[in-house]
Amino acid sequence: MSTLRVPEPVPSVADDCEQLRKAFKGWGTNEKLIISILGHRNAAQRKLIMQTYAETYGEDLLKALDRELTNDFERLVVLWTLDPAERDAYLANEATKRWTSSNQVLMEIACTRSPQRLLLARQAYHARYKKSLEEDVAHHTTGDFRKLLVPLVSSYRYDGDEVNMTLAKAEAKILHEKISEKAYSHEDLIRILATRSKAQVNATLNHYKNEFGNDINKDLKTDPKDEFLAILRATVKCLTRPEKYFEKVLRLAINRQGTDEGALTRVVATRAEVNMKFISEEYQRRNSVPLDRAIVKDTTGDYEKMLLALIGHAEA
């Protein structure tokens, strides 16, 4: 008869802080110890660890991590340790400063977070940068991208499951008309994608396919090189099937010549506590390789170990 393995109790916050302090002391940093603690604590636990560390040692834990760790491992640990709203604010700010027409990070944050989570990220942005996310997005983007991204990051969608089918049919027709006219940045098309609840967008796009024969993203693929069309397709995917969007980001990050650690780090750090299970399943289905094996093949050392701890495939 097999016995159930009882999970080991999580040490106290004070113990975690003491161990982290030890990891930073002496000759060289004990990265394995850092992974064994931070890689296995949820957002609420990490927040308590940061507060207690600052109270006990008079030092910001993030600054200590920044000082003691390097490269991709450091970025992954710091992003993961941050409060989720603070993390989104940081990533959004970075994306505005480095904005190019192929950068989809702002859209990703706006469309894959719950309305409440996006609101918290916008509040964290105010507190940290002394300005609003939407004013920075407006300042750093141009043209059609600005027309789409400002309403997306400003949105506070309804989060319920109720759907108005009459509205879905009417707006599917509007979307089809505008796409047929190649009016991809028309205010009605952007209004529908930027303000309707995710359930309503899903209903509208299902009706679009039933009524007009194509998936909307197929009709938005008329020019594969057009980066505005690419961000519109990604917006649709993030609102309706986020695990498919994130699988593609991971696949491109891992399969390109030289790994795109920035994208790999961002997706794992932001999705590990949200829907990583579905992303991993989608990755396996699409690539016939488990995500953890792809990560092992493509990364090394402490960075690899931390990634594996976060996607739930390692006993660190």
Summarize the structure.
By secondary structure, this protein is mainly α. It has helices spanning 13-24, 31-38, 43-57, 61-68, 71-81, 84-97, 105-112, 115-129, 133-140, 143-154, 165-180, 187-195, 198-212, 216-219, 227-240, 242-255, 261-271, 276-287, 291-298, 301-311. It is elongated, with a radius of gyration of 21 Å.
Descriptive overview:
The chain contains 20 helices and no strands. It is an all-alpha fold and 316 residues long.
Number of helices: 20
Largest pleated sheet: none
Strand/helix succession:
HHHHHHHHHHHHHHHHHHHH
Question: How many strand units?
Answer: 0
Q: What is the approximate shape? A: elongated
Compute the CA-based radius of gyration.
21 Å
Family: Belongs to the annexin family.
Pfam family, one: Annexin
GO cellular component, one term: plasma membrane
Binding site for Ca(2+) 1: 24, 26, 28, 68, 254, 256, 258, 296, 299, 304
List keywords for this structure.
316 residues; mainly alpha; elongated
Topology record:
Layout (H helix, E strand, L loop, with lengths): L12 H12 L6 H8 L4 H15 L3 H8 L2 H11 L2 H14 L7 H8 L2 H15 L3 H8 L2 H12 L10 H16 L6 H9 L2 H15 L3 H4 L7 H14 L1 H14 L5 H11 L4 H12 L3 H8 L2 H11 L5
